[in-house]
TrEMBL record:
Gene3D superfamilies: 2.20.25.10. HAMAP family: UPF0434. PANTHER family: PROTEIN PREY, MITOCHONDRIAL (PTHR33505:SF4), ZGC:162634 (PTHR33505). One of its GO terms (cellular component) is cytosol. In the N-terminal section; belongs to the LpxK family. In the C-terminal section; belongs to the UPF0434 family. Residues 49-82 are annotated as: Disordered. It comes from Paraburkholderia tagetis. This is UPF0434 protein L5014_06200. Residues 63-82 have a biased composition (Low complexity). It holds the Pfam family Trm112p.
Amino acid sequence: MDARLLEILVCPICKGPLSYDRAAQELICSADKLAYPIRDGIPVMLVDEARQTVEGTPVDPNGPSGPSGSSGPSSPSGSSGA
């Protein structure tokens, strides 16, 4: 991996820096816990092609924080029926 290329590439989700894993041939975003593959010397910077580096961590292509204030469907709290 060319060091100059690594300096200009960023995570397509959070725009954060990437680190190079030479053994796995991947670019790692530690913020989003994603690993982007390098195939034939070419980084594949597609979210759909990335793998999660931590099992069970959901990937939100809109960013790590998502929409603010959304907590799912509304339901009345404290009511137990009749």
